[in-house]
Amino acid sequence: LLHLTPQSPFLSVSWPRFCVYLPGRGTVEALVHATGGRTSIARVDGPLGTPVDARWGRIDNGRTAVIEMAAASGLTLLNRDELDPRRASTFGTGQLITHALDAGVERILIGVGGSATNDGGAGMAEALGAGLLDEDGERLSPGGAALANLAQIRMDGFDRRPTQIEITVLCDVQNPLLGPEGASAVYGPQKGADAACVAQLDRALANFAGILERDLDASVAEVPGAGAAGGLAAGLMAFCGARLQSGFAAVSQAVNLPSRIAQADLVITGEGRLDTQSAYGKTVAGVASLAQAADVPCLVVAGLIEGSTELPGLVDREASTPIGMSVDEAMARTDELVPEAVERLLRRYSR
């Protein structure tokens, strides 16, 4: 979240009121801050099994947990040369769910943006005690590719507590699990998948979906949003009985964003990558829509801008990553590059 004032040196004109909303602060921080909750740290497995310290929150007097899957299974936990959606697992996200259950919460909100995974939530389910077995009765290796060998799901060791409370997936995309608009095809490339890998992962998820329907009586592949976070949303629905809700709507309601935007003269929002995916219900599209409804101009700063980026309500955009700079370097220099991009955008807008 950038805090700019009417006297900011980024501005070449004065603005009586200035509302800035950037989604990068995270679902947990946004909701906990807005509701006076508190956060905890849990040691869990990262996407490739390396232990990480993941932050999660409690709101509503401790009755509701807020989990961000990216804290345990996210892209930012890996260097670019480590990205491998064939092996990356959501096991750590399942461990976070267990930590929340052990704390006695009655409800769990799970944000599913920024994943490094494409395993359909299989790792999450295994962390909760599900057995994902091949035709020899052996447990599968972690990751999305191994799902091609899935032959059976055993639930006799599954922790039933997730099915006894309310679990809501905060999901801002409408992609199904499979096919040309599915998890692998649309989001796999940003996780390191080439065309051959995308096809491999989609076939593996198709097998997974078939076994879910046969063994769990869960038909989730075509549910809008099932493809979020490499199919984690589908797994949460199938194994935990979760329901999907717009994450943007939940956070914007908690921070009273529509009212704040209505009182602003200008809104700046942000996105890691602004591209054709941004129209699929991502935060930048939601902010731009609210700004348009309030007749307030909206600008966006993105790490990268690629392809068609036209969105209703969006007036202008600026990339923070210089041409030729690696993603790893750009992420390491975010505190420097984003303010510079904001300044360029505002100077251009105020001419």
Topology, element by element:
Layout: E1 19-20, H1 27-35, E2 38-45, E3 51-59, E4 64-68, H2 70-73, H3 91-102, E5 107-111, H4 122-127, E6 131-133, E7 152-154, E8 166-170, H5 183-187, H6 195-216, H7 228-240, E9 243-245, H8 247-254, H9 257-262, E10 267-274, H10 283-293, E11 298-305, E12 314-319, H11 327-332, H12 334-349
Explain this structure to me?
The protein is an alpha/beta fold. It folds into two domains: 26-247, Glycerate kinase, domain 2 (Alpha-Beta Complex), CATH 3.90.1510; 264-349, 3-Layer(aba) Sandwich (Rossmann fold). It is built from twelve helices and twelve strands. The strands form three sheets. Strands 2-3-4-5-8-9 form a six-stranded mixed β-sheet, with helices on both faces. A four-stranded parallel β-sheet has the order 1-10-11-12. The protein has a two-stranded antiparallel sheet with strand order 6-7. α10 (283-293) links the parallel β10 and β11. The chain is globular, with a radius of gyration of 20 Å.
Large-scale geometry: globular
Count of individual domains: 2
Structural class: alpha/beta
Strand content: 15-25%
CATH names the topology of the largest domain as Glycerate kinase, domain 2
The protein's oligomeric status is single chain
Strand order across the largest sheet: 2-3-4-5-8-9
Our count of helices gives: 12
* Termini separation: 25 Å
**Approximately how much helix is present in the residues?**
25-40%
Q: How many strand segments?
A: 12
Written as H for each helix and E for each strand, in order along the chain, the element string is EHEEEHHEHEEEHHHEHHEHEEHH
CATH superfamily of the largest domain: Glycerate kinase, domain 2
* Mean pLDDT level: 89
Low-confidence stretches: 1-6, 21-25
CATH class of the largest domain: Alpha Beta
Supply the CATH architecture of the largest domain.
Alpha-Beta Complex
Main pleated-sheet profile: 6 strands, mixed
Query: What is the rounded Rg?
Result: 20 Å
